[in-house]
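Customer ticket, subject: "Can you confirm the structure for Telomere length regulation protein TEL2 homolog?"

Message body: Hello, I'm evaluating your service for our small team and ran a test protein. I'd like someone to confirm that this is what the system normally returns, since I don't have a reference to compare against.
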Amino acid sequence: MRSSRTAGTVSRWQRAPRPSPCTPDPSPALIMHASVLPELLASLMAGVRCRLDSSLPAVRRLGMIVAEVASARIHPEGPPLKFQYEEDELSHEMLALATLQPVADSPSEASPPVTPVATETPDKENVDDGVPQAQPEGSDSELDSDDEFVPYDMSGDREMKSSKTPMYVRDCVEALTTSEDWERWEAALWALEGLVFRNPAATREVSVELAKVLLHLEEKTSVVGFEGLRQRALVAVTVTDPARVAEYLTSQFYAVNYSLRQRMDILDVLTLAAQELSRPGRLKRTPQRSSLDPTSQSGCTVTPAWRAVVDERVRSKTRHFSKGSPRRGPAGSPNEFNSVAGYFFFPLIQRFDRPLVTFDLLGDDQLVLGRLAHTLGVLMYLAVNTTVAVSMGKALLEFVWALRFHGDAYVRRGLLSAVSSVLLSVPAERLLADLPDELLEARSWLADVAEKDPDEDCRILAVKALLLLEKLKDKLLPLSSP
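Agent reply: Thanks for trying us out. I re-ran your input and got the following:
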């Protein structure tokens, strides 16, 4: 009886209704789909190669989205292709553009709805006590048996790194130059900034070598925030050993076989390092680990959270009869940029008019020239109240006077900002005593720019510089009167 029932069940599955051989003609959309299918497949395979060869995360993410959409159109009946990538605004826009809107007139073009598998109630005569029925071979229940399970949330998981984090600066230099272990290379890049601040003596022993490695470092893996990590490490090395590293970086700015991106990186690093050196109370600052550090554990943020809650409760339950005098600000400290400002400034301004084979500031590389003018202005502003400020101001005014009629607006903005920096950083008495002729020439040029320059920003900057000159004259008039 069991065999007959099973046979009856199988025969009933075999006698399921089949589609009629008289099928209607394919729609024009399907004919067009079949005609472009080989071309679409060829383009898709070429795109796979481009995605695998690219090291840019944005390009790889774009390739994944295109592959998912294209595979869904080529094989709509198959299992969907799904990659794991970080979604951003661009990915959402791409997926929104690829979503088909249902059309009432042509339901065949819309995506076919998923119909649930209907479960039949077995007849009483076909059910045997305690014996499960045999499922038909090739049924959907065997293939899609795990669809009912909810996927586990792995968004908070972290990848386990087999390589240990370097503990010394020399280990980082070795890992970044000779290591073929990409996990060790990435760990060294993440740990370098903190090691430089914690071991200044060891950093000074290899500071120039480390600066050279970081300046030529290229992204070998898809490291999150690679440019920021490299720049912060370079700034940390420059701050730790400013004279030697600044001398090396300024010499490389005018060297051959460097890209424009590397030259602008040098200017950015010098500016950020000068800002850090001139900041009051810099030595009392404790270097903090970056928020992007993958080795930071979530438990490290627990202590400040509960301590803040406890402090708030104690503060709310405490009665204060008198809070006393307000706290004093941080104690003043000498400007550390004072002793090294010349290493940052003068090598950059001395060779700007000497063209190289691949680098010409007065020619096609006017973008770098504009960045150089802005950088010199910032360095001049940060050198306020330093002993070398007068010499820097005189050299910067000569630099401005040589380029005052430059055709690029970005360069002229940098020159006007540099003039304002000179007026703000050099003491008024020294300006009128040592640079009277330069100030007269700058005044006439500023008045002409404020009236006739075609760029609005240049006119505004010229007016601001003229106002600084007027304040300078008003400040010195009471001193000169009897």
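A couple of notes from the result: The first helix runs from residue 2 to 14. The CA atoms of residues 66 and 437 lie 65 Å apart. Feel free to reply with more questions.
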